[in-house]
Design brief:
Strands 3-2-1-4-7-8-9 form a seven-stranded mixed β-sheet, sandwiched between helices. It has a five-stranded antiparallel β-sheet with strand order 6-5-10-12-11. The chain has two domains: 193 residues, Rossmann fold; 55 residues, Dipeptide transport protein (Gyrase A, domain 2), CATH 3.30.1360. The protein is α/β, with parallel strands linked by helices. It has six helices and twelve strands.
Amino acid sequence: MNLYISCDMEGTAGVCSWEQCDPSNATEYPIYRRYMSREVRAAIEGARAAEPCEVLVNDAHSRMHNLLFDELPTDIRVLSGYRKALSMVQGADEGFDGAFFTGYHGGIGEERAVLAHTYSPNVLYGVRINGIECDETLLNAAYLGEFGVPVLMITGDEALCASARKHLPWVQCAQVKRSTDYYSTDSLTPSAALALITESAREAVLRRAAARPFRFEGPVTLAIEAASLECADYMALIPGFTRIGGRSLRWSAPSYVPAFQGLIAAMRIGRPAADRA
């Protein structure tokens, strides 16, 4: 089996503040990047307990060089570094039999979802595809789905798992914590989370015959709610984007892949406005 893993950090057990997952933080971040790395390793070990796996891991959090290589199996490949053209799904293609999303989190505006955001909270306040509100899980699952790759397992908080099951009912969820509000969580300990992730990954691979690639049927309409007027000003410069409100833009594509590429482009070009201070 060829397994693709996209790993984020906010959904890691115990994480409840930006400081814990901010690479510029010299105290808490080093601890939680190790927890993040160990959760990725647990997912790989669980998958391999079900069947032999070749593994590619895409480090998808922040500056995308968070994983500690000495915490990972020696025979995997890791995509590391910023900025990747396809961001959280860099390297994903038809060569994979299934995917895991580890350390994922709820989408922006999701109630009781710790550190909820969608890609870049300073740039994007909402993303809809064909009228459906999307978080990172759904956006990334749809990209993988275009290549026939199903998402088999996700790890994160209760809100993430509940949201994912609405569109990916087959997905195995390793719920490592429950958010009590945006900055607090009722979490498993890191050791307990590792055991849960290992077993969930094993079950996900054993049951992968029931999984299905998730797709948005074309043509695809991408609707973006920018975080600010300034961000929308920049996004509106991209050919094909139509401004339909102060912070609202729309773009149409024949299929999902170019729509996803348009989203990433809009996010990138809108960032200078968000970083103006």
